[in-house]
Amino acid sequence: MDDDSDFDEEHLESPHSSQGSSLVGILDGALDDPKRHARAQHNALERRRRDNIKDMYTSLKDVVPDMQNERASRAVILRRAIEVIEEKQQQRADLKADCERLRSEMADLEREVARLRENLAKPSESKRSSISVRSEMCVKGEPMG
Fold first, then answer.
1. Can you give the residue range of the structural domain that contains 56?
2. Number of structural domains, the chain?
3. Which domain CATH number covers 92?
4. Do 77 and 60 form a contact (C-beta atoms < 8 A)?
5. What secondary structure does DSSP assign to 91-102, as a single string?
6. pLDDT tens sequence across 55-77
7. Phi, psi (5° rounding) for residue 79?
8. Tens digits of per-residue pLDDT, 75-115?
9. At a CB cut-off of 8 Å and minimum separation 6, what does 29 contact?
10. Would you say the C-alpha torsion 24, 26, 32, 36 has a positive or negative sign?
11. What is the DSSP string of the chain?
């Protein structure tokens, strides 16, 4: 690799470089040399990318339960986030099953209500016979239970 391509942001931060040049001189040199300029742009983009990833991990840690005040590595943050997601998926599946069971139960009850309403609307043979048995018992003077 060429020494010119080893341009590093450390040179920008350090007021005392090994070459004794000022910060302005380094910037001018970086802008004059296309390789140095491209390297500086690449370094800045990479730094922004790393900062963005760091911010996303922080955001993820902040929304994962019981991790808001905890200092944790990225691996721990991801592992705990996966655990929470899997727990929520299981809860969702359980709730869907409960909902389906309740819908089925409700349909059964609605059918039962409709059947009972239908029975109330028209007297059936069993109702007639029970009414006639009671009438006969009443006429005979037998106690009705």
1. 3-140
2. 1
3. 4.10.280.10
4. yes
5. HHHHHHHHHHHH
6. 999 999 999 998 888 889 999 99
7. -60, -45
8. 999 999 999 999 999 999 999 999 999 999 999 999 999 99
9. 21, 36
10. negative
11. --GGGG--HHHHH-SS-TT---HHHHHHHHHHSHHHHHHHHHHHHHHHHHHHHHHHHHHHHHHSTT-TT----HHHHHHHHHHHHHHHHHHHHHHHHHHHHHHHHHHHHHHHHHHHHHHHHS--HHHHHHHHHHHHHHHHTPPP-
Residue 26 lies in a domain: yes
Q: Which residue has the tokens 């359980």?
A: 94
> Is 145 a domain residue?
no
pTM comes to: 0.52
